[in-house]
Amino acid sequence: MSKPVRWILGALLILAGLAVAAFTIFGGGFSTVACHDTPPDWVYYYLIFVGVINLAAAIVPAVMLIREAKGVRIVIALVLGIVFSCAGFIFYYVLLGPYC
Questions:
Q1: Whether the Cβ atoms of residue 59 and residue 77 lie closer than 8 Å to each other
Q2: Which end of the chain is least crowded, N or C, by CB within 10 Å?
Q3: Neighbours of 8 (CB within 10 A)
Q4: Residues 32 and 100 sit within 8 Å (Cβ to Cβ)
């Protein structure tokens, strides 16, 4: 794979990570509209933390791609990022459960 293609794919991966992190934070915030009790602030801080995990899950493989790491390591980083992101978002809903 040529160097310009790696840079373009890395930039697209970072942009996708920004979109997913924004969706996580705003989508998680909008999911509290129907709550019968107001969740405490630390629940929202956890949601921001999960958004940062989503962003890191996209930036790390992009940097690995630009620095020409092996394909297996990039795939492992992508899979681990998706697993940690999904687990964090699911745990956010577990934390939100008693209030909604």
A1: no
A2: N
A3: 11
A4: yes
Q: How far is the C-alpha of 61 from the C-alpha of 65, rounded, in Å?
A: 6
- pTM greater than 0.90: no
CA separation for the pair 51, 4 (Å, rounded): 29
With contact defined as beta carbons under 8 Å apart, do 43 and 94 qualify?
no
Nearest 10 degrees: CA dihedral of 26, 30, 35, 40? 20
Backbone dihedral angles phi then psi of residue 50, each to the nearest 5 degrees:
-65, -35
